[in-house]
User: Fold this.
Amino acid sequence: MTDNVTLMVGLPGQGMHLHLDALSLLFLCILAPQVLASAVAGMRFSVTFWVFVFGMVLALAAGDAFTLIFGFELMSAASWLLVLRGDQRPATLYITIAIFSSACLIPAVFLPASSIAFVLIALGTGAKAGLAPLHSWLPKAHPAPPAGVSALMSGGMVKIALYVLIRYAFIVLTGAAQPWWGVVLIVAGIASVVIGALRAMLETEMKTMLACSTVEHVGLIAVGLGIALRAKAMGDPALTAVALQAALLCAVAHGLFKPLLFLGAGEVKHATGTTSLNWLGGLMRGQPRLGALMLLGAAGMAALPLGPGFAPEFLLLHAVIAAAATGGILARIGFTFALAALGLGAALALGAAVRLIGIGFLGRPRSLHAASAEDARRGPLFGMGLLAVLMLPVALVPGQVLAAMMPVVTLLAPQAEIHLLSYTPLPLILLAFLIATATGFILHRWGVRGTREAAPWNGGFGRAPVWLPFGDPTTQPSATGFAEPVTRAIARGILGKHGTDPAETYLVAPLQRLHLRGVRLAERIRRATIRQRLGVVFAALVMFLLALGLAEGG
Amino acid sequence: MLFLLRLIATLLHAAAVFAVAPLLMGAVNKFRAWALGRRGPPFLQPYYELYKHLRKTTLVPETATELFAIWPVAAFLATATAALLVPGFYTGMLTAPTSDFITLIGLLALARAATMLGGLETGFGFGGAAAGREVLFSLFAEAALLVVLLSFVLLAHSITVDGIAVAFATGHIGISVSLGFALAALLAVALTETGRIPTDNPAGHLELAMVHEALTLEYSGRFLLLLQYTAMLRLLLWMDLIGTIFFPFAMAQADSILTWPAGLVLWLIKLGIMAALLPLFEISTAKMRIFRVPEFLGAAMLLGILAGVFLFVAARIGS
Assistant:
């Protein structure tokens, strides 16, 4: 599509140009179901929400740098207002990051194609997408607004940032592309995967945990993009295609299951008044439909086979293995470690998903609110159902979805060689179906049918008092307890003793200290007495005269 | 015609896998008893036990949700599907194109997730504690499996289990240090995944120390049958995997019927040898503390990485 639309507003004499190509269409397709679901879930009456959506659409449809930046900033500003309305504490950090991001992006889009432009783009979009080490704001800010906005921020807004990254790294700056650009993205992505997945395993607030998982998925996408960028610069068409497909499919899948999970978390909050896993439990009884949808979303988040998250993970692992099979020895060793880190991340993501469902929705209620939860309202359920239905093609026929995304891959890397996806869920389902039929027949023909209810063995604890109809909640493992082995074995090594994010310890905290010192200095200057001020002016005069005299005389 | 042969081979393989799995468990238990100087249960004991569970009433705990019945079925289906993907004694079965190693890892993860959720279902202590430990074990196991897979792909230029088996059986790979490391790493992962000593004790009776067994504490009747059968299939799957990759001698080809009997006999012999070696290893070591297991598996992961690095160095020197 080459047609440009020029609007009569914008820069004087220039206007704003709108232009749609395969890449922006793909991201519009990722965005549309989330917007619909969030709107149905109750956000449709908020003007700020629609401004937020308009900003994202404008950024995607932009045909020139000014429109792109305008849409991007509109998105940032509107989302800041939405965060501010939810919770004031993370809003300041959020707007700081947003300003940092635009301070990097605005010069970058007007620079000629060069490595400096790429670094600025990577910093600006990485800060907005939550790529390590600039991710520590994301688990604070994304859970703050109402669920519909959180869903769109996690599923949509980070994708817009990644869209800008893809557009610049693969299309605009392609003339100056260097292999190390890819390496930067891979390293940042791997760090995001490990830290995001680990924190998702440890957080007890449901929405914070989902936001940490978003950091992980952004990392996965970044690794795919990095491998593709490196392979494209080094001229490896097959690897470029696999890695790009992995990244784009991951973006599609994440854009479906993460909003679903966030909307579900919002409904849990509505029904029970809390999203802390330590106060939930047994929600599947009161909220069977919500629970079933959350189970689907969690299967996607954990990248389980037959779920929507597996095909991208599969492609990504194939890409890393292929990257480790060729090239210089150091790069190959690096990719081997990246593979181990991705395995660790995948297992952690599985643990986090099991924890979300197992602690939150199964077992016994840990509070009366959880015990008396009623099923989700119709609007959010409809929105989640819509996303779940759209997950089906990604889960069951990923090959066809990839085939539909072919124009995007050829747009980003014209020489890419695209091979068929070798993961085909349908034969696996057929096999499982045959086994299920045979087993069902045997159990039905020879087995004793029917079930009987019985009291479970409570592990030797005494009888619970009568005012606790579901037994003593302290006799079942909490979310913190479930994560305890992981905390003890590895989290203290990676996150430090108190479990704080390394980005927080090594980046945010020193910056805050610097800021504090600067403020103190400014305050001292402001409070200076008249004598001190005169002294400074006098000293400056003496210095100036001295310098002048030395220059004249010397 | 060829398709028909391959179909028959696939069905035969499926029948053999499903029939032999309990016998393998019986053999391991018998050999273990012999090694300890006891007489041991008969070889066919697992079949009797499965039949016993078939005839028992299934109890459902009051505190369980509607999904209580789903988890054993899901775990069983995922493991059984995975077991059909691993070529036991045939290469070139109909399932060969889908037998991608990463799919296999994914299916095992699916089975693990279902078992963990089953353990969390009733909301009493031991299931949840065991699920948390299972997550911990899986972290390094998954990482180790992926790096070991890298070495296989580098040597065999194929990522399907079937392709790796064919390449290792026909190609001149020779005995390399890398494969030794990979075998050690894979054995450590296999011992953990199947819940054997030194990471877990299948014959243990102390709930505090259980991992795999504690997840199934509340299941009975049909569901327990499925879970126990899943454990047997998992043991067979891992032995198959190790046998297929490291000892692919005289494996039958699905499209030439004359190789079938020899392949089947050799497969049974291979399984018999592994079933004898496993108890020997088990009685010569002690069970580890839970928090030693990450070190054990971390060492496996490092061995896997070393296997890859050795291959890179060899490729560098060779070229």
Summary: Residues 33 and 40 of chain B are 5 Å apart (CA to CA). Residues 2-318 of chain B form one domain. Chain B is about 70% helix and 5% strand. The longest strand of chain B covers residues 58-61.
